[in-house]
Amino acid sequence: MSELIYWDLYEISSEHSDLNGVMLRGRLRKLGLENNRNILVENTEDSDNGVRFALPHGEDPNLFVDYLSGVIPDSRVSKVAEKLANIVLSKLKVNDEGRYTL
To answer: What average pLDDT score do residues 55-61 get?
Structure first.
């Protein structure tokens, strides 16, 4: 078996620009591919007009943050969680392991 990958989770928000329906997820994915970087990207289900992305724990997010500020000048990126395994991006509460029993 392989080791778990730990992820740091970031949220993109904007007061005036659309983040959904503008191919943002695909463009961030392509930026990662072209720069040989691992990234997960999803729209938020628990907040309107939001996108979250995750990078392997400890990796520098500046490539993605700088890109975002160029294509969506009023975007804000904030780190919302770090070092999570088997991360769910669309709903933050799903990452709370204490909510579940097996």
So the answer is: 98
Q: Name the pTM for this structure.
A: 0.93
Backbone angles phi, psi at 59, to 5 degrees: -75, 145
Distance from C-alpha of 75 to C-alpha of 36, rounded to nearest angstrom: 24
For residues 45 and 101, the answer to whether their CB atoms sit within 8 Å is no
Do 69 and 75 contact (CB within 8 A), yes or no?
yes
Which helix or strand (DSSP H or E) is residue 67 part of?
helix 62-71
Query: If you count them, how many residues does the chain have?
Result: 102
Contact 81, 95 (CB under 8 A): yes
